[in-house]
Amino acid sequence: MIGWHSHNELLIQIDPSFVPMQYNTALGFVASAIALLLIRSSIVAGVSSVFLILLGSLTLTEYIAGVDLHIDQLLMEHYVDINTSHPGRMAPNTALCFSLFGLGCFIASRSGSYQWQQSYSAILASLVFSLGFIAFSGYLIEIDTAYGWGKLTKMAVHTSFGFVVLGIGLLAYTISSLPSKDKHKLPMWLPWPIGIGCLSLSITTWQALKSHEHNMVELLGSSANNFADEGVLFFGIIATLGLTLAIRTSLSAQIAEDNKLKDYAPMVALFFGIALSALLYTILDNTARETTKARFEAAAYSHANAITRGITAYTESLYDIEKIFNSSQHISREEFAKYVQRNLQVQPGLLGLQWLPKVTGEQRAAFEQHISELYQTPLTIRLFDGQGYVAIETHKEHYPILYTEPYEANKGAIGIDVTSQSYSQPAVYKAIDSRSPTAISPLNLVQLKDRDDAVGAAILLAVYRRDESLTHVAERRSAVLGIAAATIEVGSMIEDILINYSKPGGIHMHFVDITEPNDHQSLYTHASRYPGANPPPAVFDIGNEKMHAENIIAFGDRQWQMIAIPAHPSLYPTWDPTSLVMPMAVSLLTILLFVYLRHSIRQEQKQSKLIEEVKKSRQKLTETQERFELSVRGSGDALWEYDSRSGENWFSSRFTEILGYLPGELPNTLDTWRDHVHPDELEMANQAFMAHLVDDVPYDIEYRMRTKSGSYRWFRARAKSLRKGNGEAYRTSGSVTDITTRKEMENSLARAKEAAEQRSQELLLLNRDFNAILNFSSDFLYIKDAEHRYRAQNLNHACLTGQDGVFGAKGKTDFDIFPREDAQAYFDGERAVIEQGEPLIDHLESYLRPDGSTGWVKSNKRPIYDDQHNIVGMFGFSAEVSELIEAKKVAEEATQAKSDFLANMSHEIRTPMNAIIGMSHMALGTDLAPKQRNYIEKVNRSAESLLGIINDILDFSKIEAGKLELEYIDFQLEDVMESLNNLLGLKAEESGVELMFDLPCELPTALIGDPLRLGQILLNLGSNAIKFTEAGGEVVVQATVKERTKDEAVLQFAIRDTGIGMNAEQQQHLFESFSQVDSSTTRKHGGTGLGLAISKQLVSLMQGEIWVDSEAGNGSTFSFTCCLGLQEAGAATAMKTRKELNELKILIVDDNSSSRLILRNMLENFGFAIDEATNGTDAIAMIEAADKPAPYDLVLMDWRMPGIDGIETARLIQNDPKLQSAPTVIMVTAYGREEAQLEAQDVELAGFLSKPVMPSTLLDTMLLALGHGVVADSRTSTKQESVKGAIRKLNGAEILLVEDNEINKELAVELLRSHGLNPTVANNGQEALTLLDQQSFDGVLMDCQMPVMDGYTATREIRNQQRFKDLPVIAMTANVMAGDREKVLEAGMNDHIAKPININQMFQIMAHWISPKATSQQDSEVTANNDSEIELPPLSDIDISTGLRVSMNNKSLYRKLLTKFYDNYQDFKATFESALAESDQTSATRHAHSLKSVAGSIGAKGVQEAAKELEAALIDGLDDEYVRRRLQQVDLKLAPVIASLAQLDADDEPTPAVVTKEPALTDEQYQQLVSLQQYLQSYDAEAMSVLEQLTPVLSSQLPELVTLAELAENFEFDQANDLLEQLLKRLRNQ
């Protein structure tokens, strides 16, 4: 099947000369393998077997019925062996094998192990094996009849081998499935597989001999061949039959019930023998016929081949004529006659050889004069019509006979033009055009005009001038000299050829020209030269001939058919008498076998009868003995007898049996008895026996005897004696009874009685202890039955219930004792215990004390089971925890009060702190005296430190209050590390500490979790590391993968510093709240002591651990783990391959070993060759040494190094005269990048890298330095591709937009239409319902608040109609408060899109629900509007970037939206007050809602928030005064927006705006804006402090800061970050 699908013909047909395996055959083998491997699974094997039976049966039906069921190429269109009558159809023997194998597997897989199942499956397996073996052998001995039936499709070689394997497999399973009791016996069905196998071997051997039949005929003659191959077949069949019957008879003799089958064996043998004789005669007779026919056809073919060779020899005469005319064009008559004389002599069939020159019309007269002179008689160019000569007209060219030999016999042909006769002209020009001999037959020749029985023919060959091109027909006709011709008398030629080229074959032959399909011409009949041959018939009617052969002979370009028939019936007989010999022999052997079997069976019957009589006699005797034995054994006793006279003793077999011996192992003596009696009882037993013999004392004693295993058993012996007249005992008989079980029971009873007495004593003690436990336990203990009724209780519980004593509450329920509410609670809790057996563990319950107060207990209740594991009750114990509950409540209240106090105080402190920081910052910007500046700087630093403390207190308060929850969102680890670098880098640089990141390339970066809190942990630990590390030290942040699964990874982060370190005592309290290392560090380094405690809590929430390894004076390593999810399609930033960057050789120059190691690991992961140097001097030496053999391509140079720094080293390298070419240098610095750039102005540096170095930053810098493009960041492109994919999916969708606001309508319609969607607008819910009745839509975008009918009502109406149950309805509303999404879903909408619209989110949500029925022909990709020249003037209180993002950066659309906003909302206050005056609360709410939505879309966020509060006031039903105050706030926010939009309305066509340059900022102010962005991205509340400092100072220059401050105070950090990004971009451009 793989071969068919992969077009690998080697797998399909092994060898091009072999038959291919059809696809259905391969499929059948797969099903066969499944059926055989899973044959014990009756369902799987049954289904596969039925499939095989159907596959084979249907294919056989196609062959038998001659129909096409169209199953041959159902699963695969065949492209191999397609020129058959039925391409793709498996061979019939293949189909038969699949049917047989499927039936065999089906029978074998059925439940049960019946003999008939095994027999049938074994026979079917043998048949499959046989068919496969015969076919496979056919390939080995090259007989196609073995693997193909007639002209039908043949079985492939690997198909035949597959059936051999399947047959063996099924047979092996059948044998292995024999019952265990029968596995040591041969199965009754064994003869059939053996017989089938032997028969297959016989047939194969016969076929092998058959393949060499022609060799046998040549060596031994046809009769010997019959006796050879058919004799082997006969012997094999007889041997198979004899072996099968012998095995069958042998097996049947072992089974009595098969005797009836043996009676039929002679008849079966006789039947099969006669049938075999008939079959053998048929085979031999057919073989004889086929052999005779083969000899006849071989003789006919030999004659035809001889005639073909002879005609070739006759044709060679023409080539001889060609040679002489090629040697000279002027050949005389005498030369021609001399040259052809030899050919005429050796080829009697030649009537003549002629030369016919080409004579043109102009040359005719000259030619006629020439031949007249040559032959001295008037001659012209003429023709012969069979009666006489006829003159012809002059043509363009003639081919008359010039020379002919022998002349006398052929002189009448001189001058005859062969092109003037219709039957010869085509042959002439065909000979010229084809450059090969052509023929004319039959032909009327002048030479044969007097012979009616003779048929003439001619062969023509064109002769051309030498050295002329004969490529084209025109060239050949131009270059022809003439025609060489040979006239032949057909009969003479054939007889001459047969005499010289063949031996007499005893066949008559008739030759017919069949070149013309509709005009066959009889040529000649050859009578056999064989002695005694009959004369040939006048007419060869092959329909009446039993044996004939037809062969085709080429005569020039003509085709002759040779029809051959036997010359005499005895030469090729159709019946061979020797065919009767073998069948007669088989019949005779069959009769002898029949007589032998008949006689043998009768003898067996006589013997069986005698044996049966003997068996019956023995049976009667055995039954008598068994009855006696049973009577004795029934008592279980052994018998013995003692003869006092002879001293002989006898024991029954039972005696030895009860001692564990086999019969005969113990001698029947008295000593045997004495040897086995226990020594302790031997004396007593002897005395008792002698007393019985002498004094007739009754003998009934008990003693022990040793068994064969060595153990002792107890026996009771009793006896009676026969006595003489004097009382002397002479024969004593008795019995021995095994009483070991009784003795053991007596001993057990004694031990049980003793144990019971001991147990009773223990129970008394246990009862005393149990009562003590019950009565002195402080817990409440009680037992209840299955009906919840008390059975017992301890005294403490009795005091609680007021029921005295342990059984005081027996029979009562909790409803009889406790208040109903408490009792019901107890009952509900205990139901699961008693009814389901589920224990109740540490369940807190309240109870009513006698004094009326409430107490609390922690109860544990477990079920009680009886011996049948049925629940019969419950045991409970309840511990008093009232004091603990009260204490916990007090502690929680204190904790909550503390947390509330901390949160409130931190918030209250922030307000004055903002003023302190802002004012001190402004003061530092003025001219101050040194002493004043010192004071103010200290105030500023102290305020910032205090602000950090307050932030820690806020986080700690959240953690303690249990309100801190982690996000679980997609993020990139690189973003977190870049943010950490931005926050820590400046601090590290100011402290003189080198900060490094060690991030392996295999680290997963596309993660799922809370990036903010992960960054907070890293920031806390990194800040501490920098804080406690002196200048010149280093801090390394390392990340590794600890564990990884398919969906998540456990990352381990380590922050290592070279700071002051800690001792063991300091580490013990390190992660406790408000804990510091010691008082000195608190004074020196500051801090609240909350950072590590907060980090520990955050790590715990991330399912991780945090710990520290430190040593005083040797630095610290803080490590933590966290569990993060892995994004499905996430990947780190793509890296350029080593191949693209070639074989880079890089030198790292850095005095810091950690920095070198980190860079080396990164670069080696990229596949580069790395060397290291610790200083500039060594680096120069290494570069000079490697310059000629293998120079360095790149140098990563650290800036600050001892000795000569990096910049000076780079300068020396570039000016080094020893270097042929200086390597590219990238400067790496942990300090001020700008300072380094200033110092390196005269040095050619390819780039700068700031520590800590990220892998992606390193690679990008290298690529730029080496002239390559940087690697594209896929994080943004992935999102863009997702949005583009959503837009492509929505292409052509018919969307119903339900929106009442004009601006929102225009925005939505433009967005949808520009992205390939077809929107239709409805102004309210009622119009939407009407349009849905009229048109078909793929989805609905539904506003929620509208006049006439709102979106909620409209959606419910839509869902009430069955036809719209699957129509996607998506809400588009500005309501984004908690519960709004649930409200739209409850109304029947599918999803929710918030206003202002996030375009990407909108299309992704729509694509999730909406699938268009038809795709628009337009490209769904958004094409940018040609509005690059449109400029928007500065607009007050409007975030243009947000508005452009909503309108997909379509400035033209955005300008329209702004104009619409101006037109619709410049009189908003009057419109709203009018609605209030008319008490139209709904209309007023809708106006507020509309303003909120549209303001957000254009970026007027202040108006949006004010409108939001106004809408909320209306919805909540607040008083009119509050609503009017909210309206006043809206008006204050709206007025500047309307004023700034008025300038847009003044111009119909917008003109490019004049971009004014922002006033310059100080470096410190710009750096504060950069830090602000980092705080916003990490959701750090420190952003509000920065804004409070910057806004008063820069609001006049940067009015966006006011909006930023408002967004930050509302914790809308994402929007604030977007706005800040636009501001920074503008500032950078300037």
Structure summarized in a few sentences:
One of its GO terms (cellular component) is plasma membrane. With 1630 residues, the chain is of the alpha+beta class.
User: How many E-type strands?
Assistant: 40
CATH fold-level assignment of the largest domain: Beta-Lactamase
**C-alpha Rg (nearest Å):** 59 Å
What oligomeric state best describes the polypeptide chains here?
A: single chain
Mean pLDDT: 80
| Overall outline | flat
Number of domains: 11
Q: What count of helical segments does DSSP give?
A: 55
Structural class: alpha+beta
Describe this structure in words.
The chain folds into eleven domains: 1-177, no CATH class; 297-503, CHASE domain (Beta-Lactamase, 2-Layer Sandwich); 580-622; 629-738, 2-Layer Sandwich (Beta-Lactamase); 777-880, PAS domain (Beta-Lactamase); 890-964, Helix Hairpins (Orthogonal Bundle); 966-1132, Histidine kinase-like ATPase, C-terminal domain (Heat Shock Protein 90, 2-Layer Sandwich), CATH 3.30.565.10; 1138-1272, Response regulator (Rossmann fold), CATH 3.40.50; and more. 52% of the residues lie in helices and 16% in strands. The strands form nine sheets. Strands 24, 25, 26, 27, 28, 29 and 30 form a seven-stranded mixed β-sheet that branches. A five-stranded antiparallel β-sheet has the order 6-1-9-8-7, with helices on both faces. Strands 15-14-18-17-16 form a five-stranded antiparallel β-sheet, with helices on both faces. Residues 1078-1083, 1130-1139, 1271-1277, 1416-1428 and 1547-1559 have low confidence and may be disordered. At low DSF concentrations, interacts with RpfF. Residues 699-751, 841-893 form the PAC domain.
